[in-house]
Write a structure and sequence with these properties.
The complex is a heterodimer of chains A (about 325) and B (about 300).
Chain A: H1 23-34, H2 37-72, E1 75-76, E2 84-85, H3 89-96, H4 98-131, H5 136-148, H6 151-161, H7 168-175, H8 190-214, H9 219-227, H10 232-243, H11 245-259, H12 264-270, H13 281-290, H14 295-325
Antiparallel strand pairs in A: 1-2
Helix pairs in contact in A: 2-14, 3-14, 4-8, 4-11, 4-13, 5-8, 6-12, 8-12, 11-14, 13-14
Chain B: H1 15-19, H2 21-52, H3 57-60, H4 75-83, H5 86-118, H6 123-135, H7 142-150, H8 164-171, H9 174-185, H10 189-197, H11 202-213, H12 215-231, H13 234-239, H14 248-255, H15 261-292
Helix pairs in contact in B: 4-15, 5-8, 5-9, 5-12, 9-12, 10-11, 12-15, 14-15
Classes of the chains: A mainly alpha (about 325), B mainly alpha (about 300).
Chain lengths: ~325, ~300
């Protein structure tokens, strides 16, 4: 949810440099073919000198680890000693871990809840905010405020709210004469409690992006619908949603990709408990690497997560590209 | 297009409906409801945190809780500052964020400039490789990335417990690099060619022509870079096992186990202040930046 605050931007195809038609590009091409070889080599050397720092970092910390994840997934790997090839042993071991099923189930349920709650709430909030004609800046600042609070602080804050003794959450329930809940300490309620935290902390970005999309809807469409006798909900259904269908889909995919990588909330609030009710896939990867010292197993899990998430990312990029063309 | 003043472009509800007495009553009821709801949902937790840290250790755990502290103590804040080594952890965070920002500005702008204006051979392949990393969610690769940082290829040194472990991976930020490249693409080549005729080298034209023209995008990239480091948790948790080197986010979780509640809450407030202040100062730019990406589609 936080990785890409500007979701539509990265996927746009590179813009063609504007300027006088032909002048830049054609002049450049002529220069390229007309220059002597030594000059061209010097130019290339200079271009790569500018690229070097960035390329080294991408190679070391993006491309190499991606390859390495796949390699280590088939190795017994202990830092400091030579790795041994073990075939698919890491995968079978991980698949037989009872926490494996729990982690995937939790992650999927978390994502599902995050879509229901984490998407419906900001959607309705943006719809309502778009109708308000006063204090616009105030609402935008306030809804985005939690995003700026470090996630660790949000998690600790809600851990305190959920505290069975001095927690505010149960105090609110008691005040409303409702039965109290175990919140993050109960096996049934723990996941939902974490989704509430994640929604509170991250909805600001979704609200702002969706608000901007709502402002792009031509007013005439609403007028026409109203003349045709469409009520409020019908206008939402037949004008608002179809007009913003594309951005809704984008935000949903981004939400899925982000929530499938959830780690901070379960790590800080529940520690994966009670009884692995909130262990997520990323948490399990962390456990394999840093508690069990089993880097092969961690990489096998990473590869599985990677394949699934890359599929979603590819879908996202495809959609943004096709959205650009229309 | 942006509605200005009380009446703007037509939205879901028509201005006509809003003009009628009943419409106006409903509007103000909804308005007050939303203000109340926002205050309760987003401002109250912040108030609860700030005021909770000022209660006495006995009052903060009392049920039912007090809405306003009976007496205001600053001991929570001063204890957090003095005993929890918060200044050291805050300084670590500042150091990590500043270095990541600086290296990103230097190396990402240089690379984006090269890809946009210098026509390197295989430029399209390089750009494709960089954009491909956008598809690979970062968190799924933390373990192999950790192993790489723990034992760098060729050099065989470890960057663990070193701010370089934050700084260097931060440069591999395809999102920021692409943002910069797209902005540079829009700078007409003629401007740069004119400078070259005047004798300016490539570096000179980057520093004295391209960068001054790119202030808005540099601002956005800077904010993203700073926020990303300040908010990150899993990566610094992995690479800083040495307590003295940990940034505030990691230190908070480690400390939260065995310190008095008021001191912990005070530490949480202190950890939030820098980003919240930065947000309030630059809120207009930040909100505009987030909204801008979505106007298409």
């Amino acid at each position: 949810m936080k990785t890409a605050p500007n979701p539509a931007a990265p996927a746009r195809p590179p813009a063609v440099p504007p300027g006088p038609p032909g002048a830049g590009a054609a002049g450049g091409a002529a220069a390229r073919t007309g220059r002597p070889l030594s000059r061209r080599i010097a130019e290339q050397a200079r271009a790569y000198a500018f690229l070097l720092g960035g390329l080294v970092c991408f190679a070391l910390f993006s491309w190499y680890p991606a390859v390495r994840a796949v390699v280590i997934a088939f190795q017994k790997y202990t830092p400091g000693s030579d790795p041994q090839w073990v075939g698919t042993a890491n995968f079978t071991r991980v698949l037989h871990d009872p926490e494996f099923g729990a982690a995937w189930r939790n992650t999927l349920v978390f994502t599902l809840f995050a879509l229901l709650l984490g998407f419906a709430v900001p959607f309705v909030t943006a719809l309502v905010l778009n109708e308000l004609r006063h204090w616009k800046a105030f609402f935008r600042v306030v809804v985005y405020l939690p995003v700026m609070i470090p996630p660790v602080v949000s998690a600790l804050l809600w851990k305190w709210f959920y505290d069975p003794g001095a927690g505010l959450a149960n105090e609110v329930l008691r005040f409303a004469h409702l039965p109290t809940s175990n919140w993050s300490n109960g096996a049934d309620t723990a996941l939902v409690s974490l989704v509430i935290v994640a929604t509170w902390a991250n909805m600001g970005g979704t609200v702002l992006i969706y608000l901007a999309a709502l402002q792009g809807i031509p007013g005439e469409l609403y007028e026409a619908a109203e003349i045709d006798g469409a009520g409020l909900l019908q206008r939402v259904r037949h004008v608002t949603i179809p007009q913003t269908r594309f951005i809704i889909l984008m935000l949903m995919l981004l939400q899925i990709i982000a929530t499938m990588q959830v780690f901070t909330e379960p790590f800080v609030i529940t520690g994966g408990g009670p009884e692995s009710a909130t262990v997520t896939v990323l948490y399990l990867i962390y456990k394999y690497a840093f508690l069990y010292n089993d880097f092969g197993g961690a990489c096998a899990l990473s590869v599985m997560l990677l394949v699934l998430l890359s599929a979603f990312s590819a879908l996202y990029l495809r959609l943004t590209r096709s959205g650009e063309d229309t | 297009m942006r509605p200005s003043g009380p009446r703007g472009t037509r939205t879901l509800i028509s201005p006509h409906t809003l003009g009628r007495p009943r419409g106006r009553a409903v509007y103000w009821t909804v308005f007050c409801g939303v203000v109340l709801l926002f205050a309760l949902a987003f401002l109250f937790p912040v108030y609860w945190m700030v005021s909770g840290a000022m209660k006495s250790p006995d009052e903060v755990t009392r049920t039912p809780p007090t809405l306003v502290p009976e007496s205001w103590h600053t001991a929570g804040y001063t204890d957090a500052w003095d005993l929890m080594q918060l200044p050291a952890h805050l300084w670590n965070t500042v150091e990590q964020a500043a270095g990541a920002w600086l290296l990103q500005i230097v190396f990402c702008t240089a690379a984006a400039y090269a890809l946009s204006k210098l026509r390197p051979a295989f430029g399209r392949i390089v750009l494709g490789g960089i954009l491909a990393t956008l598809m690979v969610p970062a968190q799924a690769l933390v373990v192999p990335k950790y192993l790489t940082v723990a034992d760098l290829p060729v050099l065989h040194t470890s960057l663990l417990n070193d701010p370089l472990a934050i700084w260097l991976p931060a440069v591999a930020n395809a999102f920021n690099l692409y943002l910069l490249k797209r902005f540079f693409d829009q700078i007409p080549r003629d401007v740069l060619e004119a400078a070259e005729i005047d004798g300016a080298g490539k570096l000179r034209s980057l520093v004295s022509i391209v960068l001054p023209m790119s202030r808005p995008v540099l601002g956005v990239v800077s904010i993203f870079a700073l926020v990303a480091v300040w908010q990150d948790f899993l990566w610094p948790l992995m690479v800083f096992s040495d307590t003295d080197k940990q940034p505030i986010s990691v230190a908070l979780v480690q400390l939260s186990q065995n310190i008095p509640l008021t001191v912990l809450i005070a530490s949480m407030v202190i950890a939030s202040v820098p980003m919240v202040v930065m947000f309030l100062v630059f809120q207009r730019h930040i909100i505009a930046g987030i909204s801008a990406g979505s106007t298409k589609g």
